[in-house]
Amino acid sequence: MADIIAIASDHAAIELKAILADWLREQGHEVLDLGPATADSVDYPDYGYKLAETVASGAAAKGVALCGSGIGISIAVNRNPGVRCALVSDGLSARLSRQHNDANVVAMGARLIGVDSAKDCLAAFLATPFEGGRHQRRVDKLSNPANAKEPA
User: What are the alphabetically sorted keywords of the record (predicted)?
Assistant: First the structure.
Protein backbone atom coordinates (compact mmCIF):
# COMPACT_ATOMS: atom_id res chain seq x y z
CA MET A 1 0.00 0.00 0.00
CA ALA A 2 1.24 3.50 -0.83
CA ASP A 3 2.10 6.04 1.84
CA ILE A 4 -0.05 8.91 3.00
CA ILE A 5 1.59 12.08 1.70
CA ALA A 6 0.76 15.51 3.13
CA ILE A 7 1.15 18.53 0.86
CA ALA A 8 0.96 22.23 1.63
CA SER A 9 1.91 25.46 -0.07
CA ASP A 10 1.47 29.18 -0.03
CA HIS A 11 -0.44 31.18 -2.65
CA ALA A 12 2.57 31.30 -5.02
CA ALA A 13 2.63 27.51 -5.35
CA ILE A 14 -1.07 26.67 -5.37
CA GLU A 15 -1.04 25.56 -9.02
CA LEU A 16 2.01 23.32 -8.56
CA LYS A 17 0.44 21.90 -5.39
CA ALA A 18 -2.70 20.90 -7.29
CA ILE A 19 -0.69 19.29 -10.10
CA LEU A 20 1.54 17.33 -7.70
CA ALA A 21 -1.41 16.27 -5.53
CA ASP A 22 -3.17 14.85 -8.59
CA TRP A 23 0.05 13.16 -9.74
CA LEU A 24 0.53 11.58 -6.30
CA ARG A 25 -3.02 10.21 -6.39
CA GLU A 26 -2.35 8.80 -9.88
CA GLN A 27 0.66 7.01 -8.35
CA GLY A 28 -1.65 5.41 -5.79
CA HIS A 29 -0.91 7.60 -2.77
CA GLU A 30 -3.45 9.00 -0.38
CA VAL A 31 -2.95 12.77 -0.27
CA LEU A 32 -3.67 15.07 2.65
CA ASP A 33 -4.00 18.52 1.08
CA LEU A 34 -3.36 20.92 3.95
CA GLY A 35 -4.08 24.01 1.89
CA PRO A 36 -4.51 26.65 0.98
CA ALA A 37 -7.64 26.16 -1.12
CA THR A 38 -7.39 29.42 -3.07
CA ALA A 39 -4.73 31.71 -4.52
CA ASP A 40 -5.49 34.43 -1.95
CA SER A 41 -2.35 35.65 -0.21
CA VAL A 42 -1.36 33.55 2.82
CA ASP A 43 1.66 33.27 5.10
CA TYR A 44 3.85 30.26 4.26
CA PRO A 45 4.91 29.66 7.91
CA ASP A 46 1.32 28.80 8.83
CA TYR A 47 1.21 26.06 6.22
CA GLY A 48 4.77 24.92 6.86
CA TYR A 49 4.08 24.46 10.58
CA LYS A 50 0.85 22.57 9.83
CA LEU A 51 2.67 20.28 7.41
CA ALA A 52 5.52 19.65 9.86
CA GLU A 53 3.11 18.73 12.66
CA THR A 54 1.21 16.37 10.35
CA VAL A 55 4.40 14.49 9.41
CA ALA A 56 5.94 14.58 12.90
CA SER A 57 2.74 13.19 14.43
CA GLY A 58 2.70 10.25 12.02
CA ALA A 59 -0.55 11.29 10.35
CA ALA A 60 1.42 11.30 7.08
CA ALA A 61 4.53 9.30 6.19
CA LYS A 62 6.09 12.11 4.18
CA GLY A 63 5.37 15.67 3.18
CA VAL A 64 5.70 18.06 0.26
CA ALA A 65 6.25 21.75 1.04
CA LEU A 66 5.90 24.37 -1.68
CA CYS A 67 6.21 28.13 -1.88
CA GLY A 68 7.54 30.58 -4.45
CA SER A 69 11.20 29.79 -3.79
CA GLY A 70 10.85 26.79 -1.46
CA ILE A 71 13.15 28.56 0.99
CA GLY A 72 10.65 30.13 3.38
CA ILE A 73 8.42 27.11 3.77
CA SER A 74 11.41 24.79 4.22
CA ILE A 75 12.67 26.99 7.06
CA ALA A 76 9.23 26.87 8.69
CA VAL A 77 8.97 23.08 8.35
CA ASN A 78 12.44 22.57 9.81
CA ARG A 79 11.46 24.36 13.03
CA ASN A 80 9.86 21.06 14.10
CA PRO A 81 12.54 18.69 15.49
CA GLY A 82 10.60 15.66 14.26
CA VAL A 83 10.97 16.70 10.64
CA ARG A 84 13.88 16.86 8.23
CA CYS A 85 12.92 18.99 5.24
CA ALA A 86 15.21 19.22 2.22
CA LEU A 87 14.92 21.96 -0.39
CA VAL A 88 15.63 20.26 -3.71
CA SER A 89 15.81 21.28 -7.34
CA ASP A 90 16.69 18.05 -9.15
CA GLY A 91 16.34 14.29 -8.84
CA LEU A 92 19.84 13.81 -7.46
CA SER A 93 19.36 16.23 -4.56
CA ALA A 94 16.00 14.61 -3.81
CA ARG A 95 17.54 11.13 -3.83
CA LEU A 96 20.47 12.18 -1.61
CA SER A 97 18.11 13.88 0.84
CA ARG A 98 16.58 10.47 1.48
CA GLN A 99 19.73 8.30 1.24
CA HIS A 100 21.93 10.38 3.52
CA ASN A 101 19.59 12.60 5.55
CA ASP A 102 16.43 10.51 5.90
CA ALA A 103 14.43 13.60 4.88
CA ASN A 104 10.73 13.11 5.50
CA VAL A 105 9.64 16.34 3.79
CA VAL A 106 10.73 17.65 0.41
CA ALA A 107 10.48 21.35 -0.45
CA MET A 108 10.47 22.96 -3.87
CA GLY A 109 10.06 26.46 -5.26
CA ALA A 110 7.18 26.85 -7.70
CA ARG A 111 8.81 29.91 -9.28
CA LEU A 112 12.10 28.06 -9.77
CA ILE A 113 11.19 24.55 -10.89
CA GLY A 114 9.11 23.24 -13.77
CA VAL A 115 6.34 20.71 -13.40
CA ASP A 116 8.32 17.85 -14.96
CA SER A 117 11.35 18.55 -12.76
CA ALA A 118 9.11 18.74 -9.68
CA LYS A 119 7.59 15.36 -10.53
CA ASP A 120 11.09 13.92 -11.07
CA CYS A 121 12.19 15.24 -7.66
CA LEU A 122 9.11 13.85 -5.97
CA ALA A 123 9.45 10.45 -7.65
CA ALA A 124 13.10 10.18 -6.57
CA PHE A 125 12.26 11.34 -3.05
CA LEU A 126 9.48 8.78 -2.61
CA ALA A 127 11.35 5.87 -4.20
CA THR A 128 14.64 6.24 -2.31
CA PRO A 129 15.20 4.51 1.03
CA PHE A 130 17.42 5.82 3.81
CA GLU A 131 20.82 4.08 3.75
CA GLY A 132 21.31 4.16 7.51
CA GLY A 133 24.77 2.99 8.53
CA ARG A 134 27.22 5.84 9.02
CA HIS A 135 24.45 8.33 8.25
CA GLN A 136 22.27 7.25 11.18
CA ARG A 137 24.29 8.95 13.92
CA ARG A 138 24.30 12.18 11.92
CA VAL A 139 20.56 12.05 11.38
CA ASP A 140 20.09 11.41 15.11
CA LYS A 141 21.97 14.63 15.83
CA LEU A 142 19.64 16.61 13.57
CA SER A 143 16.72 15.95 15.90
CA ASN A 144 18.78 16.17 19.09
CA PRO A 145 21.57 18.78 18.92
CA ALA A 146 22.60 17.88 22.48
CA ASN A 147 24.14 14.71 20.99
CA ALA A 148 26.48 16.74 18.77
CA LYS A 149 30.15 16.84 19.70
CA GLU A 150 32.32 19.94 19.80
CA PRO A 151 34.27 20.05 16.53
CA ALA A 152 38.03 19.62 16.91
Answer: Isomerase
CA distance 130 to 108: 20
Q: Which residues contact 97 (CB under 8 A, 6 or more apart)?
A: 86, 88, 103, 106, 125
CA dist 59 and 51 (Å) reads 10
Q: What is the pTM of this model?
A: 0.94
- Enumerate the domain spans of the chain: 4-147
From the candidates 29, 85, 100, 135, which is the catalytic residue? Answer: 100
Q: What is the pLDDT along the chain (152 residues), one digit of tens a residue?
A: 468 999 999 999 999 999 999 999 999 999 999 999 999 999 999 999 999 999 999 999 999 999 999 999 999 999 999 999 999 999 999 999 999 999 999 999 999 999 999 999 999 999 999 987 888 888 888 877 777 788 87
CATH class for the region spanning 4-147: alpha beta
Annotated binding-site residue? 71: yes
Q: Is 135 a catalytic residue?
A: no
Whole-number Å distance between alpha carbons of 125 and 95? 5
Is 10 labelled a binding residue?
yes
Give 145's DSSP letter. G
